[in-house]
Amino acid sequence: MKLTKEQKQELIEKLSHPLGQVRLLCDGYKVDLVVERTSALGFKIVTYVNGYWKGEWMSADKPHPEQKFMNKKFKPYVSKAKLAKLEKEVGKRVFKKHIADDPFYTGGITLYDVTWASGRTAINHLCKVCDSIQIAPEEVTV
Fold first, then answer.
1. Looking at the whole model, is its pTM more than 0.85?
2. Antiparallel, parallel or unpaired: β 71-76 and 43-49
3. Are 8 and 127 in contact (CB under 8 A)?
4. In the chain, what are the domain boundaries?
């Protein structure tokens, strides 16, 4: 079951305010998106899977099923600007022969971040990666 456009817009609206919170059921997991303060004037959306998040989910070394709910980021070892400068210094022919295939210069590290810049990106990502997504029913506490 997927979310309708109206439901998506409602969730995005809830996550656009400080201390907003949304609870979803995604592929059998309870996913909470919570607006939390990250700096003096900054807020980000934090993802909690079944009520918590673990640091081991952030590393791409071992696959975890919870990683599909996270924000995947790739950080290259060497920036594109530094590669362009190096290519200019050593020449295109030497660069292509020795450096272009070297994993140190072309590789990087993949991380899974629990934060999102906006509610729209978080909701759109979850709708894209989850087969079944629905709004969790409100729990009544006495």
1. no
2. unpaired
3. yes
4. 1-70+114-142, 74-111
